[in-house]
Amino acid sequence: MSEKNDVLILAIESSCDETAAAVVKNGREVLSNVISSQIALHTLYGGVVPEIASRKHIEKINQVIETALTEAEVTLDEIDAIGVTYGPGLVGALLVGVAEAKAIAYAAKKPLVGVHHIEGHIAANFIENKELEPPFLCLVVSGGHTHLVCVKDYGKFEIIGRTRDDAAGEAFDKVARAIGLGYPGGPKIDKVSKEGNPEAIVFPRAHVEDAPYDFSFSGVKSAVLNYINGCQMKGETFSQADVAASFQKAVTDVLVENAMHAVDEYGLKKLAIAGGVASNSSLRAAMKDACEKNQIEFYHPSPVYCTDNAAMIGVAAYYEYMKGTRHGWDLNAIPNLKLGER
Ligand code: KG4
Ligand code: ZN
């Protein structure tokens, strides 16, 4: 239900393999959050196939948007602005959402607000943590990104650390494939790790020289592959659960260590996590623990707001809209869009 002064955003997200639409009220209240996942389809190929993703987005997007409006019990007329992810992501997939958002905004005479996908992931923290306000540190860990971001204000960011090679989620997906768990790897490693011993195998914790907030995950990924090859060459079997748990611990340790170092150095008292890997149970537990020990307030979205969704895009679009951000009909998909760029 909405009142006259409420600001309602219709948000669209199609940067990877989820076709999603949501209606968000006043930047913090999710009236609907509809996600049509393509995971089952891409599982057949062991990963996301860009061409298939774009085609599926086209098939689903109208229906997903209609459902989002219906579930929110609002009409398009009542919407104040259309928010859409325009990068980074798969160009063909992004284009479907951007073209759709432009068409709706043009036909319904509504302002158009393009949103950076990572700004959306960070904004997911505002949905359930009504008291959370910048400044805070945010660890963004997704399939495509691993960033330590100082959130100075709404829509104002300083990236203080990033991965030099694989993103955290990418490492989870690759290791999962190598140990026979398949796609999508993150949730599967999370699950089998619960039966494994995280101390069974010591995998390397990579630190980047002279860049204390940067990450590198290609070393730990190679170490897992070497371990498996070693076992196979000796004719030995390995425990999938122990490898998964030990790998997960190696990644988590570095994420927590760098994040704690950064909050301390930047004098921040609040830490949030975001992105698909932020739903990892071991990372959440370890980060909560470390924050308690260091007297840092810890924030995280529910798992449904960690992985790709449109509600988070609606929240980010709201803060951009309130700041006066408007995009024109020339808005394009930018696959490598940098955070903070327009
Ligand atoms: O944020 P997201 O949905 O999409 C991107 O923007 O990339 O993140 C997807 C990534 C995938 O790599 C997936 O394996 C990982 O998040 N992921 C997880 C978990 N759930 C999803 N990684 C570890 N543990 C999980 N529970
Ligand atoms: Zn994402």
Report on this model:
The protein has 342 residues and is an alpha/beta fold. 44% of the residues lie in helices and 19% in strands. The chain has 12 helices and 10 strands. The protein has helices at 39-43, 50-72, 91-108, 117-123, 125-128, 168-178, 185-193, 218-233, 240-265, 281-293, 303-306, 311-323, and strands at residues 8-13, 18-25, 29-37, 81-87, 112-116, 136-141, 146-153, 156-162, 270-274, 297-299. The strands form 2 sheets. It has a 5-stranded mixed beta sheet, sandwiched between helices. Strand 4 (81-87), helix 3 (91-108) and strand 5 (112-116) form a beta-alpha-beta unit. Helix 4 (117-123) packs across helix 12 and helix 9 packs parallel to helix 10 (281-293). The chain is globular and about 65 Å long. The site of zinc ion (ZN) has 5 residues, from helix 4.
| Ligand identities | 5'-O-[(R)-(carboxyoxy)(hydroxy)phosphoryl]adenosine, zinc ion
Instruction: Summarize the amount of helix as a percent range.
Output: 40-55%
Number of strands: 10
Q: Specify the biggest β-sheet.
A: 5 strands, mixed
Strand order of the largest sheet: 3-2-1-4-5
Mean pLDDT: 96
* Helix segment tally: 12
Proportion of residues in extended strands: 15-25%
Rg over CA atoms, rounded to whole Å, is 20 Å
Distance between the termini: 33 Å
- Taken from the alpha-carbon principal axes, the silhouette is globular
Class inferred from helices and paired strands: alpha/beta
Order of helices and strands: EEEHHEHEHHEEEHHHHEHEHH
